[in-house]
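Quick one: co-fold with iron/sulfur cluster.
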Amino acid sequence: MSTELLKLIQKYDVQGPRYTSYPTVPHWSSTFGQSEFKTTLESFDRNTIRPLSLYTHIPFCEEKCYYCACNVIITRHKEQADLYLGYLKKELDLVSPSVPKTYSVTQIHWGGGTPTYLSAKQIEMLFQEYEKRFSISATAEISIEVDPRVTTFEQLKTLRTLGFNRISMGVQDFDPKVQLSINRNQTEEQTIQVHTWCQELGFTSINMDFVYGLPFQTREGFEKNLKMIVALEPDRIAFYNYAHVPWQVPYQKFIPEHSLPTAELKLELFQLALEIFKDRGYLPIGLDHFAKMDDGLVKAFEHKTLRRNFMGYTTQKNTLLLAFGVSSISDVETIYAQNFRKLSDYYKALDEKRWPVMRGCVLSLDDQLRREIIMNLMCYLEASIPEMEKKFSTELKQLEPMVSEGFLTRSPDRLQVTELGRMFVRNICMVFDAYFQRQQEPSKRYSRTV
Ligand code: SF4
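Sure, here it is.
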């Protein structure tokens, strides 16, 4: 790696948001609650047809992977899932009457935790609860996250029969030494078996999640890893940068700092992946996704309908995203609303027949303009200058060093992030983040940007 690049890493490797929303979650307010959320949903014209996206959070996992920052509940007491499904039903009963009946569900995603913690029977029952209350389009994208360590053929067959057509599979790293250090022992055979079943059952898109920056990753080991990934030919690859924030995620304290790759090595791993994935015909999408040319994510990129949200990158920009379950986040035009993060608070609100909203945000006009710029940068690595020239002249000035450093090119009508700048796109977005810029001190709430 060149000395110049090393200097850039040292300069820009700071703590910053991942921009799955703008404003980012720490700037939402706990005064936002049921009334604000309900009023927004009920203000929509009940005679128009609009696309709807439904997210469901299943928080349970059998074991905790040390690196994971998701809101999960570790338990092997499967009866907990029955109780939870009962509360999900209560939430659907409370919220769904506020959604216009004319709205058509074009996207469904179940995430977690581990959605395949549910048995085939529970999966079927939960899906039917949605079918009873919403009109699901025959062409809807219906996806679920699966953990190959606990997923059976019976569950996958049930999912396919119900209409699920996309699978997202957690892999993270094939190396047993890395797996041991993150408490996630997943054999190559388990991954290949679930992948084969998904292909046999005709899921139309298979995504695999990998993480770089994990303990004990080396260039040699990682290259082997990447070759194994491309040999399986997933349609999409989500390639996440591990965020080491043990002050926020207590389990990460089990990961010794000395075992983590340096920022320089992480960048090398990312560049290696970029090279190998591109060589095998994958198009890089946004910050950390790769997709085959015939995958929906590439079409969404070409048609400018990509969306960045809490699920990563999705294909439908203008849907209203309604989320159900503990800690889940709805993204509805100019508001965000998050459910309680603690199961006991979530259950209590529903027992009292209240929407379980913990906090949220109503976007000002300024927030909306900045969100558009940040999301364009995160999705397409570009932003339109005429739209920002008058209002954001200070920000454009602030970007000048990054233009000189080769992260961006500037033409009369747009800012374009370069291949080098792709690695620093969060730093570029931070310039447009009014809340981040107002902070007096660097926040420990965020992960490092490189
Ligand atoms: S990575 Fe997946 S399986 Fe592991 S703790 Fe997080 S949600 Fe659970």
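If it helps, The chain has 18 helices and 21 strands.
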